Amino acid sequence: MHVVSREEMRDIDRHTIAHIGLGGPVLMENAGRAVYTAIEPLITANEKVMVMIGKGNNGGDGFVIARLLLDSQACVDTWLMTPPECITGDAAYHMNVFLACGGHVHLVKQEQENFASQMNQADMIVDALLGTGIHGEPYPEYVEVINQINKSKAHVVAVDLPSGVPANGEMFTHPAVFADRTMTLACPKLAQFVQPAARYFGAVQILSIGIPQAVFRTLEIQRELRLRTEVIRSLPIRDPFSHKGSHGKGLLIAGSVQMPGAAFFSAKAALRSGIGLLKVSVPDQISAIIAGRLPETMFMPREEMNFEGVTGVAVGPGLGRATKEATLVRRVLESCGSMPCVIDADGLFHLKGLLNLLPKRSVPAVLSPHPGEMAYLLETSVSEVEQHRFSISQAFAKKYKVYLVLKGKYTLVTAPDGRQVINPTGNAAMAKGGSGDVLTGILLAFLLQHKQIMDAVCNAVYVHGAVADYLIQNGHSKLDVLATDLIDALPPVLHQLYNDTTC
Ligand SMILES: NC(=O)C1=CN([C@@H]2O[C@H](COP(=O)(O)OP(=O)(O)OC[C@H]3O[C@@H](n4cnc5c(N)ncnc54)[C@H](OP(=O)(O)O)[C@@H]3O)[C@@H](O)[C@H]2O)[C@H](O)CC1
Ligand SMILES: [K+]
Q: Taking the CA of residue 228 as centre, how many other CA atoms within 13 Å lie in the half-sphere pointing to its CB?
């Protein structure tokens, strides 16, 4: 499923109309009908619905919704922000259809008292004030209505975008509708995945408005939301005649006296994610602790670290920040350029002075920073990274020829050619030390078992989030989940995904 910017959505729209021949009024009819079909089951008899209509095409969708509600004998009132004569184009077309069907409109400006009293009584408000076409802050009369919507007790359903939210997720401080649900039309917009915009959406439903796939193929949109079906399609299938050497011989360089747990989490997650053989390089002082808990791994003393027989490397979790550890990262970059490699946590700290080595690798490295680590690598602020996560990730991945995993509520994976995949799984339970180390292990294991690096990375991120979701649905709260719980939940989550693969 493609995720689009305001400009891309406009191009999709235009192309569908100009080159495919599906007219604007048809798309608007599809859009309004899709929203109506989704909300109709939520409305019980005698519940009062208000449809709020702005001047543009978002308002046009509102006219279709109002007409269909009217036809289904719902108790609906339709409120306009601008006089009918100011409404033009496809929106005017659907306003006229609505009026011809016996629809009646109220003008907010003319009936302010009645409007305020209806707001108090409404059970549902359909917000079709502003969609992708907003520029700047909502005009004062819109601000007033938005504030009233936000004060009301009604269930608020936003059409396409909560009104006031800029489609590309630009920073804003002005009022915007706090929706209970957002009915996204055709494609998710960037705003859904960026702060602060993302907080305004409520539950999101993505509705088809009949844009043909041919349009997406022609326009080559480079950004997608990872779907479970894609994970299932691309998970590695074990050859029945395979042996342990067929599933990767990984080397994990992790852990320190202060942070032995990080090595344990990454190693155990890699083992639970199917890696064939795993060597762990930890300082001597902690090898006994790790060995006692991970009898399935082999140990390589730090001083004797070498890459013989190794087919993939992960470096960084709990490594420590002393200069001698920087040498480890340099050695990985220089000696393992032709095998998959994951760099995370303290590995990223040391990478800062070694970035120029990344583009020289024949197999691109996988970097998995959280926004703080990304900000450190780029010498910028965390808020700058959060605000521009799509463009910053793309520029970095292209410049350094890496697969970049920018962690967050919606972890973003960017390939060296700029393709981007947004991960939908995971929850706030993962906001705890050790979660990232688990991902490093899954990444290493998946890189050694998938044919395509992008599939390996996206599937690892998806599964990592899915285990947290599984725990929340099975006896855990968002407070109590530990890194070890994430690892323990890998078997049921992978079991389910593989069950779905075969059916
Ligand atoms: N995506 C699709 O394929 C389809 C989308 N549809 C819907 O159409 C909107 C986008 O419609 P558009 O007309 O481009 O934009 P909006 O309706 O969001 O708003 C444009 C009008 O709002 C006025 N405006 C602009 N900025 C502000 C502001 N800050 N405050 C108040 N009003 C503002 C603007 O008027 P101006 O005269 O001020 O320029 C416009 O009139 C999309 O989101 C979908 O809901 C269609 O259904 C078809 C398919
Ligand atoms: K809206």
A: 12
